[in-house]
Design a protein that fits this description.
heterodimer, A: alpha/beta, 11 helices, 10 strands, about 35% helix, about 20% strand, B: mainly alpha, 3 domains
Chain lengths: ~280, ~230
Amino acid sequence: MPELNLEGLVHVYREGGVREGGVRAVDGVDLRIGPGERLAIIGQNGSGKSTLVRHLNGLLRPTAGRVLVDGVDAARMTVAQLARSIGLVFQDPDRQIFAGSVLAEVEYGPRNLGHRGQKLRSAVETALAAVGLEREARTNPYDLGASRRKLLALASVLAMETAVLVLDEPTTGQDERGVERVRAVIEDAHRDGRTVIAISHDMRFVAEGFERIVVMHAGRIVLDGSPEQVFRRDSWSTLESTFLEPPLPAVIGERLGLGSTPTDASLIRALAQSSA
Amino acid sequence: MLGGIIGPVGLVLLAVVLPALAAGVLRGLVRTSLLLTLPIAISALLVNLFFFPGGQQVLLRLGPITATAEGLEFALEILVRIMAISGAITLFYLTTRPQDLVVDLERRGVSARVAFVANASVQTVPAMVERAQQIAAAQRARGLDTEGSFLRRVRGIVPIVGPVILGSIGEVEERTLALEARGFTRPGSRTLLWWPPDSSSQRIARWGLILALVAIIGARVAGRLG
C-alpha cells in the first residue's frame, strides 16, 4: 500500500484567468497521506481541491514541488503507470463514461491494466455488486439515471482494485440510497486496507466517514485534523472564512457544552453521558 | 507561368494575413487553417500535378504517371483558393465572439431562432473538444497508455467520438428547453440591452469589402464575356 507525499506542491493554470501569470490554484501544499488512511478534503469551489488530487495520478503536473508515491517522484511515471496504484473517480460521470454498455465501461480500466479471464470477471462483478448495478450489466449507460451513472463511474474505477481510491465529490447529485452505497464502498475499501481520499461539500458525510479532514482555502491547507479537531469551536472562524459550516451535531454539542461532537453518534453518546 | 496566382495571393495577403497580423492572431490562424486544409490541399496538389488533362510541358516522369507544368499551375491556383477560403473562415472564428455575432444578427433583424442556431453551432465545437479532452483524461486515469504512441492515442479517441457527439446534442437540446422555458419563442420584437460597438472604421472596411467583392465579380463576368 503506497504512501503519498506532496512536497511544496504548486500548480498555476497558465491559460485563461488572471492575465498576469495565470491562476495559482494550488499554492504550496505539504501533505503526507499514510497507507490505509481515510482522508476528506473540503473547501469552497475554486479552493484547489480537484487540482490537488489530479496531481496524485499525474493528470496534472506540478508547476513547483513534488508528488511522491512510495518515495518515487510521480513526475517519472506516466498517468497509465500511476493508474495501477491510484484510481481517480471524476466529479462528472458524463465526462468519464464512453462505452456502450455498463459492463464494457467497468471492464475498460482492468483491461488496460492487463487483467483477463477469471480475474477480470471477478473484479467487474465485485465492483458492480458494490454499487448495486449487477443487474444492469447489459444496459447502455445513457439509459441509467444521473445518480446511477455516477455509481457506474465509481464502479469503473473500483474494478481496477487500486491501492488508493480518490473520489471527487462522490455524493453530489446522489439520493440517500446512493450516498449510503458510497459510504459502504468507502467502508469496504478501508477494511481492505486501501487508502481513500474524497473531496466533498457534504459536512455530515465527511464527519461520519473519515478519520482525517483537510480544509483548503485559496490553494492552501488551513486546517488538518480529525473531525473532532476540525469541527470544534476554535476552528469555526477558520471554517467560516472559507464559507464552510460545521455539521449540525457539532454546533448542538458546543452549544450544550458537551465538547466537540461532529457526528450524530458522538452527540448522542455525549448527551447520554452528560445525563447519566 | 505563375501570373495566374499573383492576384489571388495578393488578395490573401491583403484580406486575410494583414488583418490577422493586426488582430494578433496570425499564429493561431496559420495553425488552425493548416490543420483544416492540409489533407485536402495535399490531395488536390497530387491529383492536379500528376493527372491534369492535356498537360504538355513535362516536369517529371514517374513510371506511367507524369507531372506537367500546366498541372502544377492549376494545382497552385487551387491551393491559393483553399488558403483563401480556410483563412477567411478561420480569421472570422478567431476574431468574432459568438455572442457578438448573435446579438448583431438580431439587431439587423435576423430572427432569434436563426441567430440561436448560428450561435449553437459555433459554440458546440469548443464544448465538444473540451468534453473529448475530459473523457480522454478519464481514460488515461483508467490506465490507457497514450504517452509516446500516436496509434494508442487514436485507439483511445475512436470510442469517444459517439458519446461526445451525442452528449453535445443532448446539451443543445437541454439548452433549447431552458430557453423555451424562458419564453424564447414568444412572438414580436425584442429589446436588446447591449450590442457590440461598431466603429466608423469597421463600417468603412465592411463597405470596402462589399464593393471589392462586387468589383471582383464584375471583373470576372466582364472577362468571361469579353
